[in-house]
């Protein structure tokens, strides 16, 4: 039997994607249609197809991004081309998007890609937004990304948590890799979430879930583990970024990976926080990906298993 606590209002559909693309949340209501987050660029055609199919001839009026990591806004360009939809982005990224500064938007720094898009207005913490005929509060969610926002609907007790809270954990705390504060902000975000009345959480990745309290407990203990030795965050970040590139390109040599790590600012920052030489580190992390079932290693080539 379906978990009744996970019932979503009829105006809301969640497209659960994977790890390369974030989930997308579609709203259809007489007042208009909207999509929250648009996935990664290499999945953009699939994102458009999912939206087109669900809208069944209707137009997409509004596109909203929780944050501008490449796996959350990589479908923006294709959706804007298809629908000329009004687009709202977090206020703290508005200047960087306006001039398309790929360094500040972190695409260059992580080796990830994103097709250029535009925006019509920005969203700030404290704003209210109508999606699917429901009112959503815009909350700040720094930690994983200092500019990230999350959306909360009090009348339905639903939280769109982006990468601030997953059922098992949360996104990499990126600011700490470059010696900026992120653990304290993430703790504060978890505290804010814990004070909300929540029936369903729709995370940026993974299936929607209902037991927010248990997820918050897991997130807090994970955060304590990472914050008590920042090398753990750096090592995890490097592995996650490797896994992401592997999902995108399907295969690369360990030698090519060495070049990628050295050539991308955030990967390099993470590697430098660790005591091991980069080549040894890459082999160790590649072996961990193999052990986790995410990849196989053949003659120095790392091959995606997913
Ligand atoms: Zn993210």
| Distinct helical segment count | 12
Give the quaternary arrangement of the chains.
single chain
The structural domain count equals 2
The kinds of small molecule bound in this structure are: zinc ion
Derived structural class: alpha/beta
- The neighbouring-strand order within the major sheet is 1-2-3-4-5-6
Number of strands: 14
CATH class of the largest domain: Alpha Beta
Taken from the alpha-carbon principal axes, the silhouette is globular
- Beta-strand residue percentage: 15-25%
Pick out the low-confidence regions.
Answer: none
CATH fold-type name of the largest domain = Metallo-beta-lactamase, Chain A
Distance between the termini: 29 Å
Instruction: Please tell me the CATH architecture of the largest domain by its name.
Output: 4-Layer Sandwich
Helical content stands at 25-40%
Average pLDDT number: 95
Order of helices and strands: EEEHEHHEHHEEEEEHHEHHEHHHEE
Domain Metallo-beta-lactamase: 21-205
Pfam families: Lactamase_B
Protein name: Metallo-beta-lactamase domain-containing protein
Organism: Undibacterium terreum
